[in-house]
Design a protein that fits this description.
Four copies of one chain form a homotetramer. Chain A is built from six helices and six strands; from the N terminus they run βαβαββαβαβαα. By secondary structure, the first copy, chain A, is α/β, with parallel strands linked by helices. The first copy, chain A, has a single domain, classed as Flavodoxin domain (Rossmann fold, 3-Layer(aba) Sandwich). In chain A, strands 1, 2, 3, 4, 5 and 6 form a six-stranded mixed sheet that branches. The longest helix of chain A has 23 residues. Chain A is globular and about 65 Å long. Chains A and B meet through helix 1, helix 4 and helix 5 of A and helix 1, helix 4 and helix 5 of B.
Chain lengths: 247, 247, 247, 247
C-alpha cells in the first residue's frame, strides 16, 4: 500500500462535531454510550476538531414536531438551544442505548425534533441539513446495534445528512444479560475495550465522518442542483421525463 | 435564489449507473418498480450517464455468502457476471417491491451476495465498495417504503457505499389493496405519476447520486486514511486513545 | 358458512381493556390515533367490556427502565399510577402516530416503562404480563404501519403478552403529505372512514383481542409450565436435552 | 409456588409441529440454526408431538406470491408439497440465520410463499392460518435476533397465526466476527450451549407453543366471529360504529 495513506490527507481543525447522547440516565450517572463515544471524540479532537457534547435527557425537551414547542403551548422547551448547536455542527453523532432491540425513547425525541426543521430551507433552497454528515454510536448488553443504526441513519439521510461508509459503531456482548460497554469484567478489564471489531469501527467511522465533512465543506456544501425544488426549473433542465417543480 | 443553480454544476457523462430490480416477476412481465426506476434512469441519461439495468430474478443466483457459489458446490451461479457490473458502476440503485412491509426476497439475495464481497479490498486497503454511492427505489400498494429503505441503505453503507441525502424514492397508495405504481386508474391515468412527493423525490435522489458520484470520482475515490485497517498505523496516527490495528 | 358464527360465542363483560394513546399532542388537541381507536373502543363497549383510556403525553412519565423512577432520583413520575391500570387490564391496545416511519417517542417511553416490569413475577413464576393480550392502532399520513406494528407487538410478546392473529390496524393515505385519519377531505368526508381494509382490520383486531382475552381468562391465565424458570424442574421434566433451570 | 406446575397441564401427543430452517446452506452442510432448533424439537418430542423438519434451500422454491408458481409459468416449484406440511401443522417454527442484521433471503421466500395463501379461507371464513401458532429460532455470530424476530412474528401474525408470549429464541456472541451457535470454542465446548438466557428461552418458547396449540385445538380453532368478513353480519352485530362487511 502506498505511503500516502500513513498521514491524514487534509486538516480538519475548522470542523465542528456535536455528540448527542440519548441515554435514559441523567448526569452525573455514568453512561456506557458516553464511554464508547469517548473514542470518537478522542479521534476527532486529535485532529483539532471542535467537539461539543449534549446529554439530551439532562434537558427538558418537549414532545412534538415543531421547532419551538413553547409556541404550541408548552411551558418549557430546551430544544431551541440544542438546535443552535446542531445547526452549527458539520458532524452530528447520535449515541443511544438499546432497549428491546431499539434505540431509546430519548433518541426518538431527538429524531422527531430534528425532523421538525425539515420545513426550513437554506438560501439555496436545500433542506437546512444539507452539507452536514452524521453517524451513530450504540451500546447495549445484548442485541440491536444494526437495527438502531438503520433507523438512525435513515432519519438523518431523510432530512439531508450525507451518510459516509460504515458510519456506525456499537458494542454488545453475548446474548442475554451481562456487561455493558466499559463495565469491568472479573479481571477488572472494561468490557469491549479489547474488541477489535468495535474499536476498528469506531476508528473508521470517525475518520469517514471527517473525510465526508471535509469534502462537503470544501465544496461549499452539498452541490445545489436538482435538490432544491426550485419552481423555475423545467423538466428538461432536471431531466425528468414528465414532471417539473412548477407542475 | 442565485441563478447558478439553474444549470448542473458539473458533467456526469463519465459515470456509470447500475439499476438492479429485485421484483419477483420475471421478464417480460411488467414491473411497477421498473416503471418508477424509469424516472431515475431518464434523469441520469439526460446527463449522459451510462445506465445499465438488471432484473435479478431473470438470472439464476445461488443462495450463499461467497463471491462464486459454484466453488461451494452449486451447479450454477449467475452472480459473478452481475458482480462485474456492480464493480464497474459508480452508482448502484436497488429497486424492490414490498411484501408484508419489507423488501423482496430477491432484494435480500442481492444484499447477501453484495455482502459476500466485503472480504475483498482495494489496493489502498479499503473495502471494494468505497468510492461508490447508492440509493433505492421502492413500490408497493400499501406500506413499508421507509422500512425497506432503512434496510437497503444500511446494507449499502455497511459495506462501503456513501449514502447521499434523500437517496430513496417510493410510491404506495392508500393503505389496503389497490393500484400499484403505474397501474391505470378509472380515468386511465397511471397511478403515482402525478404524485409530486414521489416525482420530486425521484428527481432529488437522482441528482444527489450524481453529485455524490461526481465528488467521489473527482477525489479519486473515498479518502483513504483511517478506514483501511493498515497495521502500520499507530494509535497516535489514528488518534485512537488506546487501540491500533496491529494490537 | 354455519349460522353459529352470527353471534358472539361468549360474553366479554367481565373483561377490562386499556387504550394508551402515544400521540405527541396533549389534550384537548384532537388526535387522529384517538379517532381510529374509537372504533376498537366502540366494538369492545358493545360487548360490555370495561374500557379505559390514557393519553400518555398528558402525564409526566420519567425516562428510565425501573418501575418507579422517583426511587432513582426523579422528582416526579406518573408511571406508577398508569401501571396500575396496565396491571388490571386483560387487554392492552397501544396507539401511536408515525414519524419517519416509526412509532412515536412517547410509544417508546411506554415500551421502556412496560419493560421495567419484566423483572416482576406472578405467584406462579410467570412474568406479570402473562395471561394478557394486546394489539396496536397506528395512524399517519404516509408510511410505516407495519414497521411500527412489528416493533410494538414484539415488545408486547417479549414481555409476556399473547398476540392474536391480525392484531394491528392502521390508516395511511397515499405516500407524501396529505390527510391524516379523520381529517375532512374536500367533500367534508373524514379520511379513512370509508376504507374497508382499515375498518375490517379494526373489527377483526377488536374481536380477536376479545376472543384471546376470553380464552386466557377462562384458563385462569396462560398455562403455567415450562415458562416460570422454576429451579425445582429437571431437564427431564422440561424435555430439554441438556439444560435445566438449576444449572 | 404451587406443585401443580411441576407437571405439564395436558397432553400434546396429538399435535404436529413443522420446523422450517431457512439457512442458506444446503444439506448435508451443518447449520447452526438447526443445532438450536434441536432444542425445541427435543422438548416437543418429549411430549409426543409429531415433529417434521424442512430445510427450505434443499428444495426449488419459485419466487412469487401465488400458491403454485408453475401456474404462472415457472418450470418447477416445490412449494406446493411444502405447503401441505404447513397446512397440516398446528405449530410452525421458522429458523433463520442473520445476515446484516436481518433474516435470510430464504426466510423471506418462505414468508412470501406463506403470504400467497392469505387469499384462501377456511369453511368458517377465516384465513387458513387461523388456529395455528408459531415462533422463530435465530442464530448469527453478532447481532439482529430481535429485529428478525419482529419481522417473522409480524408476518405470521398478519396472516392468522397466534403468537404466544416469548415465542422467539436466539443466540449471538459478542459483536464482531466469532463463533456461531454450536461451534466449538478453544476448550472444545459448543458455543451457546451453556448460555442460560438462550436455553431458558428455547424452553419457554417450546412450552408456550405447546400451550397455545393445545388451547386452540381444544377450542376447535380460533373462535370464529368478527374475523371472517361475513357479509351477513351487520355493524350492530359486530359492534362497529359505522361500518359493516356488506358496505
Amino acid at each position: 500500500m502506498a505511503d500516502t495513506k500513513l498521514a491524514p490527507p487534509a486538516r480538519y481543525d475548522d470542523l465542528k462535531a456535536l455528540f448527542i447522547n440519548c441515554t435514559l440516565k441523567r448526569s452525573p450517572e455514568p453512561s456506557h454510550t458516553d464511554t464508547l463515544m469517548d473514542v470518537n471524540r478522542a479521534i476527532m479532537k486529535s485532529q483539532g476538531v471542535s467537539v461539543e457534547s449534549v446529554r439530551l435527557v439532562d434537558h427538558q425537551i418537549a414532545f412534538g414536531v415543531q421547532p419551538d414547542m413553547t409556541e404550541q403551548g408548552w411551558d418549557r422547551d430546551d430544544w431551541p438551544k440544542i438546535w443552535k448547536k446542531v445547526e452549527a455542527a458539520d458532524i452530528l453523532v447520535i449515541g443511544t442505548p438499546l432497549w428491546l432491540g431499539e434505540e431509546s425513547s430519548v433518541a426518538r425525541v431527538l429524531i422527531e425534533r430534528l425532523y421538525a426543521h425539515s420545513g426550513q430551507r437554506q438560501d439555496n433552497g436545500q433542506f437546512v441539513f444539507y452539507g452536514k454528515t452524521g453517524g451513530c454510536v450504540i451500546t447495549g448488553n445484548e442485541d440491536g446495534v444494526k437495527h438502531a443504526a438503520m433507523t438512525t441513519h435513515f432519519a438523518l439521510s431523510h432530512i439531508g445528512y450525507t451518510i459516509p461508509p460504515q458510519a456506525d459503531v456499537g458494542w454488545i456482548g453475548e446474548v442475554g444479560p451481562g456487561l455493558s460497554y466499559g463495565d469491568e469484567d472479573d479481571s477488572g478489564a472494561p468490557a469491549g475495550f479489547d474488541n477489535a471489531f468495535t474499536q476498528r469501527n469506531a476508528t473508521i467511522m470517525s475518520w469517514n465522518l471527517l473525510h465526508t465533512a471535509r469534502m462537503l465543506k470544501d465544496q461549499g456544501g452539498f452541490p445545489a442542483f436538482g435538490n432544491q425544488n426550485d419552481e423555475r426549473l423545467s423538466k428538461q433542465q432536471l431531466g425528468h421525463p414528465f414532471w417539473s417543480p412548477d407542475s
